[in-house]
């Protein structure tokens, strides 16, 4: 369910508690907290959670990112299932 995180964000920001699943072996990590950003083009995941699931990034693809302050970085792409509000989102 969504809630507002008052301890990490000022002003409080909407977050979702989701389960991530490795579609290759069925491994899951529950209660992963994600910041909800309805204007975002991609979903960024905690790297520690992805590592726990044993998912390897796609080697030939990545996303170039730019922060609000103009800082540029790159993000690897992984294929996972996200379970949120009893719905499964694949990709």
What does it look like?
This protein is mostly beta strands. It has one domain. 8% of the residues lie in helices and 43% in strands. The protein is built from one helix and seven strands. Strands 1, 2, 3, 6 and 7 form a five-stranded antiparallel sheet that branches. Strands 4-5 form a two-stranded antiparallel ribbon. The longest helix has 7 residues.
Strand and helix map with partners:
Layout: E1 2-5, E2 13-21, E3 28-35, H1 47-53, E4 62-66, E5 72-76, E6 81-84, E7 87-90
Antiparallel strand pairs: 1-2, 2-3, 2-6, 4-5, 6-7
Mean pLDDT: 90
Alpha carbon gap, first and last residue: 21 Å
Strand segment count: 7
Query: How large a portion of the residues is in β-strands, by DSSP E?
Result: 35-45%
The run of helices and strands is EEEHEEEE
Indicate the low-confidence ranges by residue numbers: none
User: How many helices in DSSP terms?
Assistant: 1
Helical/strand content category:
mainly beta
Helix content: under 10%
Rg over C-alpha atoms, rounded to the nearest angstrom: 14 Å
Gross morphology = globular
What is the count of structural domains? 1
Task: Summarize the biggest pleated sheet.
Answer: 5 strands, antiparallel
Task: Quickly list its features.
mainly beta, 5-stranded antiparallel sheet, two-stranded antiparallel sheet, 91 residues
Task: Tell me briefly what this model is.
The longest helix has 7 residues. Strands 1, 2, 3, 6 and 7 form a 5-stranded antiparallel β-sheet that branches. It is built from 1 helix and 7 strands; from the N terminus they run βββαββββ.
């Amino acid at each position: 369910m969504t809630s507002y995180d008052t301890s990490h964000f000022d002003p409080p920001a909407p977050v979702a508690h989701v389960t991530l699943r490795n579609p290759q072996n069925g491994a899951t990590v529950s209660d992963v907290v994600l910041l909800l950003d309805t204007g975002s083009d991609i979903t960024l995941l905690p790297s520690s959670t992805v590592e726990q699931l044993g998912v390897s990034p796609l080697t030939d693809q990545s996303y170039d990112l730019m922060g609000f302050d103009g800082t540029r970085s790159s993000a690897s792409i992984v294929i996972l299932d996200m379970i949120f509000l009893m719905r499964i989102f694949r990709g």
